[in-house]
Amino acid sequence: MIPTTLVSALRDAKLVVVLTGAGVSAESNIPTFRDAMTGLWARYDPQELATPEAFLRNPKLVWEWYAWRRSLCADAKPNPGHEALAALATHVPNLIVVTQNVDGLHHMAGSRRVLELHGNIKRTKCLKEKRVVESWCETDQVPPRCPQCDSMLRPDVVWFGEPLPKDVLDRANQAAANCDLFLSVGTSSQVYPAAGLVYLARRFGAKTAEINPDATVQAEEMDWAVAAPSGEALPALLAAAFPPKD
Ligand code: BV8
């Protein structure tokens, strides 16, 4: 399943960047964006809900969508794909996970160097002051209100049309420009600026690979495209590059 040339590139790499998307959490039973519209949310398009305009138009609906997704994340556990990335970091001199996911599963799996491009669904912030709020009075108000200024609270995630956190994006760009190997795993490669990182890596000479059961728009431009679920491909890549010592 894993090309031997990709295994060698991983073994020789000094800095590896792994961009992950919702597909990496699919095997932890968190629906991907493209599959998220099931059940009661079937009639909503996530790109319609994950926007500041949607929140201002219907704060209760958007807050409840995130409460539902937060409950999925609360029950989710890292899968072998997350665990393989955490283990890879103990073999590769430098490995940075740049994730589009907001579920916190890379940290939970033990990955230490994680850049959360789109925030974290488990954090809540004040709409007005933009400060993270740890606790608030539970009243019948939905969304709840900021204890300091009484503005609405919102999830601490980056919505469509919002800029990514500058320091996080700068570090992701720097990692992509300096890496020897760029792995794009479990993402449909359609959301920017995250989807642009692979081009930066290529421009500065990195080898690039995609791991996704369905080839994406970027598959043709990759040095390798592994058509497999991340929960199988990442452990296989780890075992091939750094076989366990008997
Ligand atoms: C920005 C957090 C600029 C929220 C997310 C108009 C105005 C402004 C910007 C734009 C605009 N038009 C376009 C843009 C740019 C826009 C964009 O890229 N739009 C796309 C749709 C064209 N980007 C933005 O808006 C970004 N901001 O540009 O700001 C700016 C600058 C200064 C000042 C003002 C503005 C912000 C983008 C971040 C949006 N927030 N998430 C939340 O989670 O609710 S994005 C969200 O969707 C996810 O985080 C994720 O990134 C994305 C979904 O992508 P994927 O992760 O790839 O998931 P998807 O379901 O698509 O695919 C899953 C893949 O996994 C599939 O390929 C599947 O085959 C595969 N898979 C399935 N199972 C497995 C698997 N793979 C491996 N193993 C498996 N088992």
Number of helical segments with 4 or more residues: 10
Strand content: 15-25%
Helix/strand class: alpha/beta
The major β-sheet equals: 6 strands, parallel
Overall outline:
elongated
Please trace the helix and strand order, writing H or E for each element.
HEHHHHHEHEEEHEHEEH
Sequence stretches where pLDDT stays below 50 over 5 or more residues: none
Strand order of the largest sheet: 3-2-1-6-7-8
Helix percent reads: 25-40%
Bound molecules: ligand BV8
Radius of gyration: 19 Å
Task: Give the averaged pLDDT, no decimals.
Answer: 95
Number of strands: 8
The rounded distance between the terminal residues' Cα atoms is 23 Å
Describe the protein's architecture and organization.
It contains 10 helices and 8 strands. With 246 residues, the chain is an alpha/beta fold. The mean pLDDT is 95. Strand 6 (181-185), helix 9 and strand 7 form a beta-alpha-beta unit. The strands form 2 sheets. It has a 6-stranded parallel sheet, with helices on both faces. Strands 4-5 form a two-stranded antiparallel ribbon. Ligand BV8 binds at residues 21-23, 26-27, 32-34, 47, 50, 100, 102, 118, 157-163, 186-188, 190-192, 194, 212-214, 216, 229-231.
